[in-house]
Amino acid sequence: MSSNIIAKASESIVEDLVFEDKVHKSLYSDAEIFEEELKKIFNGTWVWVAHESEVSEVGSFKTAMIGRSPVIVSRDRKKEIHVLLNRCRHRGATVCQGNHGKTRAFTCPYHGWGYALDGSLRALPKPEEYENLMDKADYGLVKLRHESYQGMIFATLNDEIEPLIDFLGGAKKWIDLFMKQGGGYPIKALGEHRFRFPGNWKIQLENTTDAYHFPIVHKSFISSVDDQTAEVFDFLDGEGYVEDLGNGHSVMVMIPELVDLDENLDDAIPERFADFAQALREEGFADDAVRKMVRAVGGGGFNLNLFPNIACSMAFFRNLVPVSVNETEIHHVALGGEGAPEIFNQTRMRLHEHFQGPMGFGTPDDGEAWERVQAGSMAGTDGWIMVNRGMSRLSTSVDGNVKGAVCSETGMRAAYRQYKKQMAVDIPVKEQADAHSK
Amino acid sequence: MPTQSELQTLAEVTAFLSKEADMLDHKEYEQWLDLWSDSGMYIVPIDHRETDYKNSLNVAYDDAEMRKMRTARLSSGEAVSTQEAVFTIRTLSRMRILGEEGGVVHARCAYCLYENKASGLRNYPANVEFKLRRDEGEFKIEEKVVRVMKSDQYLTTTCYLF
Ligand code: FES
Ligand SMILES: [Fe+2]
Which of A147, A149, A151 is nearest to A185 (CA)? Predict the structure, then answer.
């Protein structure tokens, strides 16, 4: 096994295309760059694949993509989680279909090789023809390295990479804060919107840390909510900020009062949640429990952008999946509380449906803007995408990080810095077929 | 052989749903809102097998208030995604009456929405189920559930109602 190859710097294809204050427009449309990104970004780092609640029971599975690799996230009989390449070790068929489901085993549809939930090869038809040729123990589904933080499961094709906890670094504090929105219950995925847009994945990566667009693009959403709520979303002149958390991660705090949902529980109950609070009281919940749920129900006041493919965005997970250089699939995962009152989770889902997803009051306008970026960026033979906003007015955060205004492009610069760094490093190619299969 | 009254119901429902689709294609949202009963629900589920819509995440789950907000958004001109006012054509076919109980007709049909975008023509085939309450010689929609063929895989963003 060739596991001790050391990652080395190479001639980077984007060396002259990514600068602190601008990135070249070809980053959205050059197919060669896209291929390199799959290799160096998606096959090179920790990629979010699931939340533990999506595979909550024995036999639950979810399918996901890491770059071009279809993977299965499964929970075995001992309740352990596995991330497996979705490729039959015989002649390559996928062994698991569908986004989510429950199964006892993964059976290949082609010749019937049967794999257990942990990926081990259990049985195959007519095994005698393999006599003295192979040992079943060597032909399980390939297991990927995976680690979790606060229920968020990340996997990687790069065995040399640092532990997840180190990669997340300064983002951990914000993940902890994000997970407080269960209203006193553990966070649980409630379902997801999946949609595609004809544009490059980095356009969406930038968008999660772009507050600048909100009052323009989401004008019709703001018109649809009550005045008090509209004021909450009018954050460009507020005390918000964007902080560079290192390793490509960043946080954009839009509503500072909603950073820590365990605080300010005595605040007045917002108008739009008055009926919700009343319904909880009628169900017999004590005042402190009601207040906790009211405060949590609309989500947190920030977007945490984790490089490269997941954001904890106010009240939901935003997962981006590159399909091709000019097509991206987005998953907006709605979140609620495990064991929370029905009305809490219903309210969370209705709020999610209101803004998010293919028919939301927000997402289609985002989608239109992203599509227009992809189209417009084709103009001319040369040109740049500016990410310099707020660069002359930076300060230092309480955690010692670079900090800019809420509508600065500090988060995009953080992401592109990590992007450039990873694009300059060759990923050690290991022989995955042999690794981990025992 | 269907009875005369069954054929009559089929004709009434077909006429009503053709009108509903025509209003959506021609963006006559005010009139469209009037087709609904106050308790009516407009639902676009994600999972086609789901029936507990209230306790599931949907693409759309609109009561009267949300329908009003949605049509206002689609026609206000504020939303960048609606500014091009995409031209849509809906076709309905394979109409079937599934039953009638307590003055509510339960019908199902095949439905396809065609949308012309700069990037090309897109189509969304769907199964649509209606619950229509008889109301003084007219129908009022109690429930419309649109199971869009690709909703359990992925959709694209829309600036119209299915
Ligand atoms: S490809 Fe899976 S059993 Fe043959
Ligand atoms: Fe947006």
Answer: A151
Question: For B4-148, CATH number?
Answer: 3.10.450.50
A99: burial class by Cβ within 10 Å (0-12, 13-18, 19+)?
middle
For domain A170-422, the CATH architecture is Alpha-Beta Complex (3.90)
Work out the pLDDT band at B21, boundaries 50, 70, 90: very high
Residue ranges with CB less than 5 Å from ion ligand 2 = A 366
| Tens digit of each residue's pLDDT (9 = 90 or more) over B71-120 | 999 998 888 888 876 789 999 999 999 999 999 999 999 999 999 887 78
Return d(Cα A422, Cα A156) in angstroms, integer. 14
Most A CBs within 10 Å, among B63, B73, B80, to test the A interface: B80
The 3-state DSSP class for residue A345 equals helix
Torsion, Cα A167 A173 A176 A181, to 10 degrees, reads: -120
Whole-angstrom Cα distance, residue A110 to residue A93? 7
ipTM given for this complex: 0.96
CA distance A166 to A146: 14
- Could you list the beta-strand ranges (E) of B1-156: 36-45, 58-62, 88-101, 104-117, 120-135, 138-148
Ligand 1 atom 3: residue of nearest CA: A111
Of B8, B157, B86, nearest to A199 by C-alpha is B157
The residues on A that touch B, with CB distances below 8 Å, are: 99, 190-198, 217, 219-221, 223-224, 329, 334, 342, 345-346, 349-350, 352-354, 357-359, 361, 363-369, 371, 375
Token pair belonging to B124: 């969304």
Domain range summary for chain A, segments of one domain joined by +: 47-149, 170-422
> How far is it, in rounded angstroms, from Cα A397 to Cα A418?
20
Interface test with A, best of B154, B155, B160, B162 (most A CBs within 10 A): B154
Q: Strand pairing partners for B114?
A: B89, B123
**How much is the pTM?**
0.95
Nearest to A211 by CA among A181, A171, A178, A256: A256
Can you tell me the distance from the alpha carbon of A233 to that of B158, in angstroms, rounded to the nearest whole number? 23
Q: Are B48 and B150 in contact (CB under 8 A)?
A: no
Chain B residue with CA closest to A368: the answer is: B81
- Return the CATH class of domain A47-149: mainly beta
Ligand 1 — pocket residues by CB below 6 A? A 88, 90-93, 108, 110-113
DSSP string, A221-288: HHHTS-HHHHHHT--TTSS-EEEEEETTEEEEES-GGGS-TTS-TTSPPPGGGHHHHHHHHHTT--HH
- Largest pairwise CA distance in chain A: 75
Q: Which residues of B touch A334 (CB under 8 A)?
A: 57
- In A376-391, which positions are buried (b, 16+ CB within 10 angstroms) versus exposed (e)? ebeeeeeebbebebbe
Whether the Cβ atoms of residue A252 and residue A406 lie closer than 8 Å to each other = yes
pLDDT in tens, A120-158: 999 999 999 999 999 999 999 999 999 999 999 999 999
- Chain-chain contact of B60 with A359 (C-beta, under 8 angstroms): yes
CA B129–ligand 1 middle distance (angstroms): 40
Taking one residue from A and the other from B, the number of pairs with CB-CB distance under 8 angstroms is 95
